[in-house]
Design brief:
Layout lengths: L6 H32 L4 H37 L5 H15 L1 H8 L1 H14 L19 H31 L1
Helix pairs in contact: 1-2, 1-6, 2-3, 2-5, 2-6, 3-6, 4-6, 5-6
């Protein structure tokens, strides 16, 4: 971090980088660690566990994305009229990368999320010991196939704040 920056901008660097990295780590951990272990469960339990996990992510992720994006955007604005204007451009890219997690989710994941929520709805009509009858599924997509598709999209989504954190770190050290 540049020694010539005031403490408020240094704090913004730390907040932006840390929240973006934390968000990325959480999202990537779900795709890499939790989804494979969840795949061992019966379909009824699998979609219910996905719903719980997804719900926790929805509760925390938007706030982290907003905090990080705002930190990077403020840094970009604050540095844009100084001799550090080249850093301002990098912080702007960090803000865009981190903030793009929201439109990515809405555009690319809405379909698979909707299909998984439909499976959750079907599973709630069953007891824990009963299985979802996926042979009656009109689209032919199993819970496991949807979860695998979701995990790939979620992994890609997790890379966006990772890029933001990396750009923020680079701009801070440049």
């Amino acid at each position: 971090m540049s020694a010539s920056l005031p403490p408020s901008l240094r704090l913004a660097q730390v907040v932006g980088i840390m929240t973006s990295a934390f968000l990325s780590g959480g999202v990537l951990a779900v795709s890499y660690g939790f989804v494979p272990s969840m795949s061992q469960a019966p379909n009824t339990l699998l979609v219910r566990e996905w719903q719980t996990t997804y719900g926790r992510g929805v509760a925390a992720s938007p706030a982290l994305a907003i905090i990080s994006t705002c930190s990077f955007a403020w840094l970009s604005y604050s540095l844009s009229f100084t001799l550090n204007h080249h850093k301002a451009e990098i912080f702007a890219l960090a803000a865009i990368a981190t903030g793009s997690i929201v439109p990515f989710t809405l555009i690319f994941m809405k379909g698979v999320n909707g299909k998984l929520y439909a499976k959750v709805k079907n599973s709630k009509q069953l007891s824990r010991s009963e299985e979802i009858d996926e042979s009656k599924d009109m689209e032919g997509e199993t819970s496991q196939a949807l979860l695998d598709q979701w995990a790939i999209l979620n992994f890609i989504r997790g890379l966006l704040p990772f890029v933001g954190a990396s750009l923020g770190f680079y701009a801070s050290m440049a």
